[in-house]
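Still learning. Show one?

>
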Amino acid sequence: MDNIDWNAVSPAKMWRDWIVKSEAQWSETVSQLLKDERTGGALNRQLDEMQLMHRQFSELAQASLAAANLPSRSDFEALDERMGRLEDGLAQVATALSQLSQALAAMHAPATATADTAVASSAPAFTKPARNRRPPAPAPAASSSAAEPTAKPTRTRSKKA
């Protein structure tokens, strides 16, 4: 049997080759076209007109939004910048407050304790509840005539035969 080179007749390879050749032709044609001063000048004028139209449309849209009492893109951008400055200032205040609290804790801590233990000891004592199935013990009654404890009823199991 003959060995057929399937790559030579592959549609994907033919497509890739056509794309490469087409791109090269377009690149050469556009380069030659842009070298002409008349074409370059016409494209430059058209781009300038597009920029002018874009600027005018933006101003018109902003005026329309202002007339409707709605914020424009520039308003949102200004607000975003202002919020960023506020967040930065708040972060600085939080850092200064943290440093101040650490300095105060270090001042009031005993000489042998570190700042970490001083901060931990200043926190209110919290006892965890016991992890069992028994309910917590009732609080002692304030009156002198405390109720007498009642005996728990005993359970009897019925015997199954």
